[in-house]
Structure formats: C-alpha cells, structure tokens
Amino acid sequence: MPMGIYPVIMCGGAGTRLWPASRPSRPKQFIPLSGNRSLFQETALRVAPLCDGGGRLVIVGGVAHRDAIVEQMAELGLAGQILLEPEARDSAAAMAAAAAWTARIDPEGVNVFVASDHHIPDHDAFRAAALEAASAAREGRIVTLGVRPDTPSSAYGYIAPSGSGLSAVKAFVEKPDAETAERHIADGYLWNSGNFIVSAGTLLAELRSLAPSVAAAATAALPMEASGDLAVLSPIFSTAPRISIDYAVMEKTRRASVLAVDFAWSDLGAWDAVAATGEGDLGAFLFEDVEACMARAPEGIMVAAIGVRNLAIIAERDAVLVCDLSRSQDVKKLVERMKTASPQHLDFPSRAPEGLAEGGRRFADWLRLRALPLWGAAGQAESGAFAELLALDGRPIPSQRRARVQGRQVFVFCEAGRQGWNGPWRWIVRQGLACLEAHYLRSDGLMRTLLDETGRPLDETALLYDQAFHMLARAAASRADVQGDHAAVARQVRDLLLAQAPAEGGLIEQDAQPYQSNPHMHLLEACLAWEETGGDVGWTQLADRIVALALTRFIDPERGCLREFFAPDWSPAVGEDGRRVEPGHQFEWAWLLARYGRARGDPAAINAARRLHGHGEAGIAVRRQVAVDAMDDAGAVIGRRARLWPQTEWMKSALVLAELSEDGERTALIESAAAAQRALWRYLTPDGLWRDKLLEDDRFIDEPAPASSLYHILGAYIQLRATANSVGMDADLLRLD
Length: 737
Fold this sequence. Notes:
It is a single chain. By secondary structure, the chain is α/β, with parallel strands linked by helices. 42% of the residues lie in helices and 14% in strands. It is built from 23 helices and 25 strands. Strand 2 (58-62), helix 2 and strand 3 (81-85) form a beta-alpha-beta unit. The termini are far apart.
C-alpha cells in the first residue's frame, strides 16, 4: 500500500502589508519578492522533491487565483493536483480538503502543509526536516516546524517546546510585544513557522473529533469523480466554519509535536523583511546619495530618489507607496483607511473575461456575417456537393467527399434558416439534398460513405454514422419546411438499419471497430430531432433502446465515464481501446442524455448526464483551458492535442445542464459554458474559417478548415440561443437576421 508524502501548498493570505504590489487579485505569493521567481514558485521547487517516493504535489487556492497557479506551475514544468476553494474559509477547511483528497487515493499518505508565501533559501535543510517530521507523523504525531529565532520579533507567533529536537508542544503563544518576545527567546521558545507535517488520516480524525463541521464540509466538497489535475470544491465548502488550524486543532490536540530547525526563514510579511533579503529591488531605478533604500517598479516606469534613507519606494501603474522601512508594519493601517478613502485602489484595475452574453452576441455576428455566407458560397459547388475543406484564404480544396459532410451541411443551413439567417439557405439546402440523392444514395436507400472529388463512388459501405446524419438532415429539412417527404425517407433509412441489426442491444457499425458508442450517439441525436418534429413512435422506441444501452453498457457503472469501443457482448474492449475516454464525447452524450431525461422525466438519464459532464471537465487542460482529445478511464490524459469540436460540445453540455440546475450549480455551469465559448474563440478566424487542431505547445496545425466542424459550431450557437432566456439572456439579441 502506498505511504507517499503529499506536500500541500496553501495559497491563502492577502499580504496587505505589501500593498501596492500585493493585492487580492495578485497576492504576495504570486509576485517575485526575493529573486526572479515568485514565493509560490520557490515553495513548489522546495517541496516537489518530497513526492519522489510515490506522493503527489497538492495546491489549495482560491478560484480567483486559478490562472496564477496554473501558469506559474507550467513555467516550472511541474504538475500537481490543484484544489480550488469557492470561498476562503481559513486554514482548517483548506487543510481538511487536502487531507481528504490525499486519504482518498492513499490512506497512509503523509501531508506536508506549507505556506505559499514563506522565504526559505535552504531547500535541502527544509526537506531534511520535513522527512524527519514525516517519520513521526506516520506514528500519529502532528509535527510543526519551530524555527530557532535569531532576533526578538513581534511579527511571529511562538511555540514553547517541552524539550530539544523533536518534542511535544508545551504551549502555542500569540504574537507578543517586543519585551515579551525577548523573554520568549531567553526561555527557548521557537518561532511558529506555520508548517505542519501529519498523516492525512490523523488530521481527518482530529478534525472529526475537534472540529466536526469543518471536516464534514471539506470532505463533502471534494468532487465525486476523478477530475484531472484541477478541481473546484463544491459550494458546500463555503459552509465550513471560518477557523484557523491553530484554533481548530493545534491548541486542543494531544498529538502536537514541534521539531526545532535552524534554517533561515521569513514570511516576508512586510517591506522591511523583503528589503532584508537583499533581493527585493525590482525594475528600473536611479539613486543619488541614497542609503538603505529599496525600489520596485513595473516595466516602463522609472523610480528616482535623491538624499533619502531607509525607504521602501514601491510603484505600480495606479499607485505608489513611499514608506520608512521601520514603519513597514503600519502599511496595513493605511490599507484599512483606503477602504473608505479610495476603495478602487485596494485591488488592481482589471477587465473581466468575456461573459456568455457578450461572447454570444459576437458569436451570432460571426456566423451571420462571416461563416454562413462564406460556407454557403465557396463551400458548395454548382452540383450541390459541399466542399470538405476550405483553405484559410477561402478557396475550396479538391478532396474526397464523405457522406457525413453532405448530411451535416444540409442540417447546418436548414437550422441557420430557422434561426433567422437571411442568406439563400433554401437554395443551398435544395441543391445539397439533390446532390445527396443523386450521388450518395445507394439503390437500397442507404448512403454510401465516400465519393471522389468528381462525385464517383469510392466506397459503397453504409456506415451507421453516415445514416444518422442523413436522418438528422431530413429532420432539419422537415422542420424548416423544405419541400419533400423527409419523414418517409428517414423512416425508410431507420427501418433498414433496424432490419439489419440484432433484435436487441446495440447496432453494429460496418467498420474495423464494429462495436462503438459513437454511431449510437448520432443515431440518438436523429431520434430526438424526429421526436421534436412529430415523428412516429419508432423514433421514441429507438431512442429508448439507445439510452438503455448507454446507461447499462457504454457508461462505466462505477466511474460514470463513457467508453468508446466494446466487445461483441458490449463489455469494454480489451486493451487501450476499451479504456479510451474522449472528453468531447462525454460532453456530447451529456447534452443528449440531459435532453432525453428532460423529455422523459427520467432523473437517471439527467444524473448520468451530470456525471458525464464532470468527466468531460476532467479533460480540460488546466493551463490552456481547452478540452483535450483523449484520456484513459482512470482520468490520465493520453491525447493532449485539442480539436475544435470538443469545445462546442463542452459549451452545449454546460448550457443544457444549466437549464436543469439551480442557484450555485447553475452559476457554475454558466461560467463553464462561457469558458467553453472563450475556448472556441481561440479556433475561429475573423473571416468565417477556423483552425481545427491545437497542439500542446499552443500552436495550431497549419491545414485547411474542415467543413465537418460547422455542424458542431452551429450546434453550440443553437443551444446557446435555446438556453438564453432561462439564464437571464435575451434570445432575440442572438438571432441571425
């Protein structure tokens, strides 16, 4: 059984005494105060090697600091589990959540809790102390590191040890005045460094005994499923009492020990401490006849001083602090006064990320003015055949033509017309259907899968996948009142497929991988479209059959994720194929099951949709904020490339689930949809085209835009408009006319 060490970096703390450089949106741990790296980065480098025995680095921080954590970890090339608090509840709840996460994956694991904003230059000495403390922690002790003071200080709390080395704690002492601090040093007291080493099981047991409401809220806030490298704790975390670990546990427990250490340590809590490191200067400055001063300024600002002594001169773009270093602790008083005198300077000016409504209006304009006109003109030949690819200058690229693209594009322009687009969509659809009937249909009424660039058949196979898009296109044409007996054509296709299928269970794809979930997904989409169009009971029966298969076979009953490939009995395929989990398909199935569950009043389908959405979000790359191509069934990323289409399915899933949710969950889903929309915008070009494949290094593959993506893009827009009114947006502002 693993007994690894799991360092936990606690990213709380506002650092108000380091204003104006440290503010709520960028607190001191995320800025370079001593050297070129931030304190958070120095902390990560200091503790990461402790994981080498089988543990994992854990970071606990606020949702507002997500980007700083992710970006600064990426700069170091380090990975870890990030747990984001929806609201700060002090150290006890944060430590409880990290311990609960650790205990879930390693019941014997030991946590090394460290503050993200402490300055400890000797990394080796710290790790040696942590390893010594970990041995005691495995015996059930809660060990804190006590630093031997080199000077009396009223800025720190103190610990009275019962002996030398590693010993029981006799007493914890609050920050004293200067005279009392001198007595404490004379009596052998140690500075309380705020670092704690304890097994996850021991800490949770003590919290359940001494602060049960903290333990309950923090444990319940963990995500139910594996959620990748980043997880946002659920809103129940905010019900935890706001209390420090000192008050919740350390001053009450009988397990407290202290290990005396001699390494240099500072919490860099004020400008005098930063100046004392000798590495606090930053940016451009000119001094003339200046002594013992420190200057900091952002790029493009020059600080100049003449004839001054013992000052901190801290410039930001919106504020400047000039402070006698001996009065550094009083900066906190100035910040208190600022709350009424100039509250706008308490934090940095910022522009919020584009929200769902703002991005949605831009999205509708892009479709109306750029994408639909371009793809309706350059994207269709005179024969009615839709182009597979457009170069990024808008020219069609000669290529083989897949049946699915013809069906998808008919669907796209039917739906664009229904959404109010004033372009020649009816003519485009009629030409597209005529081409489909003349060139893609076999004599039995099913579509052959592939033509060459001149329209001659290349592959006569009738794939389930392609027939699903033929039926979906017919549903869209029927709803758009395009002339033709679309219902009869779609029924014929459906009945032919069922006649060739087993009497029960799944339908078999004519492919090297015959047992797949993906074709069933698009068959279900076609069924739901025909149900909404007034189709016969056969569509309802087929939809029920597919959903039953999804809930019992496609979706893993324990993990709740949906697999791609199966054996003939619809158990998971052997090997890597059977373990493959695609985030985009988790979202796409979630979207369909949520719609199905709402239409049927089926809570099991809706609950499955929620779990699938969670698995999809586990595949969102933390730094890049895009849904990647593939994971395995344990949540490990196996395909870090990120195509365009999973971003659209993420958006659709979040939107439809927001309609079915309330209060805090709805708010989180709306923000998830907005994040998906922002991810999608990375792929779209201003002239109505798109990039398809984003590599791990944030470079796009240089290739033409595939027509097949427009189905996904327009689908995201349709769901946005359908959801708009229920989430406080005006759907009429998103029309395409």
